[in-house]
Amino acid sequence: MEHPPSASLEEGALSLAELLQSARAAILSEWEDEVRASPKARTLERGVLLRAMPELLEYVSRLEVAPSGEEFSTQAPARHALERLHQGFELTELIAEYAALRGCIPRVLEARGVRLAGPELARLHEAIDRALGQAVAIQAWARERPLQVLGRIAEAALHHQEPEDFLHELLVALVETSAAVDSAVLYLLEDGRLHVRACVGLDEALLAQLSTPVGEDFAGSVAATREPLQIPTERVEDPVLSAALHEAGVRRLYGVPLFEDGEVLGVAQIGSREPSEFSQRDELLFADGVRRATSFLVQAQRTTRERAARTRVEATQRRYRDVVEGIDIGIAWEADAATFQPTFVSPRAEPLLGYPRQQWLDEPDFWFRHVHPEDREGVRAAFARALAEGTDQACEHRLLSRDGREVWLHTGVRPGQLRPDGSRVLRGLSVDISRLKEAERALRVRELGQHRLANLGQLALAGAEPPTLLEEAAAAMATTFGVELAGVYELLPGARAARLAAGVGWREGLVGQAILEGEPGTQLAHLLARHLPRAARGGTRGARA
Q: Residue 142 to residues 73, 91, 286, 297: CA-CA distances in angstroms?
């Protein structure tokens, strides 16, 4: 492949600084391709990898034309060095990035027809060496002195679980990092406004009144621009903050934003009684300390939120259990939606049905083992509809108690939310309606009995024969009282005995033939003596065919 003929820099129309700026995109692209060979650089997103490089290339181009020893008020090498330190790069890896820059600049310019040689190439190497020297120095300093700050921050996080206590110790540690720092304030963003949550060296009670909208005044500007800011205190507009700063003699402020997952969490601010600007190292150390402290702060806030959430959940669960266990007319329960196996049952289950609560949980297929056989399909269908449709369902059914009784229950079910593992629960309330069912049955019997009696009256009015009326009367009694055996007796002459004149449920041949004796102690003697109705068990004493 042929390259265009190269010209020396003296023959070109642009200076080296201008060439570097014009070829910046190509230089950064080739530099990226080369440094991607590093395992750590390979994992970084492009924006993160290149974030400090345009400013650094600008810095190198300005150094190239500056007299030896002259510096500029820029933090490009420091920012690049600290960023790589935070990303876990070793010093050798940082130096390798400068080596890649040193090699790709001449190659890109030569591809554009400009060959660097002699004094021009030497000036470029000198500029890169000066930038690299600053980067190495700041990273070495950053590896040593901030360890003390980090130790203080870690100690504060260890001994103070509550964010409020931790924040105060954090500010104390940050203030003590530099003799130029006399005060510090930490704002946290809540509902679009910055609120003071801790301060050192200023009137805390006064600053507690401060609430700054994002975009307004000092802290609001830092949050809005997402960039550090340094100003003299004369530019502070908020009267509360201005009064606190004036009272403490603070004459200059520096603030940096706090980030959590790319979102502004708050603003950290330091102040100095000296009018001169904070040094670059003070700014970098403060910014680095804030960055490190933010992770502890976020963790402390997350722990507090989780603890509060657990407390709320536990309180809700206690209230739920109290309500559930206080239900005395039925059984509250939960069951696995796939198997309908109970996983929880309220205390009322045992006195109502006799089964220990643990048996509900341990016995396989408990529900359908004990639901009345005639009701099982209806109960199973109601449960299935609730899960399929995601709606409340209800059914009435019998459940066989431990002592063999049929207990009528009205069971309402509701599907619960999906669990993280994909499983689901079915929640239910089974209310004892046995008394209601008894009342319903008694009402039906009474209605049927009344119907029978009305029919008996109609028969009498229609002139029915006495045997027919007696048979209808016996049938009405059996229906009204829900019994299988009923009879109407006719007193015999002398009123000392009675014949079974009509009846329901008697053996064939007894009606019209069976005689109830009226001897002392018999049912007939009792009725005749008392003139009252009386129920008898076990047949009729004193009866004979």
A: 19, 12, 11, 21
